Amino acid sequence: MQSIDEICSKIISDSSLNKDEFTKSISEAFQSDDKLKPTLIILNLLKIRNPEKFLARQSSWDRIKEWGVLLAAIIPVVIALFQFILTIFPQTVP
Is the same domain home to 53 and 63? Predict the structure, then answer.
């Protein structure tokens, strides 16, 4: 979804959409215990196929953890490579 404007535009412009029914269903969805129900209704309205794929995106925290693991492996290699280069080409003090 690009933005809330896309959703609002779809609701306003879709002549086949029963706006009273949609408003009632989205209202009930927000009152439901199922926290994903409003999202599924909106995805259905926007005719997004495979909502499971849309909802299964990786969380930001998981992404940060993966990058942390990657950096933890790369940083020591970069430091060792830098130290190796310094031993091969020692600095000369003028």
Answer: no
pTM for the model stands at 0.45
Contact 38, 30 (CB under 8 A): yes
32-41: per-residue pLDDT in tens?
A: 888 888 888 8
Tens digit of each residue's pLDDT (9 = 90 or more) over 57-74:
567 777 788 889 888 989
**Cα 43 from Cα 53, distance rounded (Å):** 11
Host domain of residue 12: 1-57
Residues 19, 52, single domain; the answer is yes
- Rounded Cα gap, residues 3 and 46, in angstroms: 12
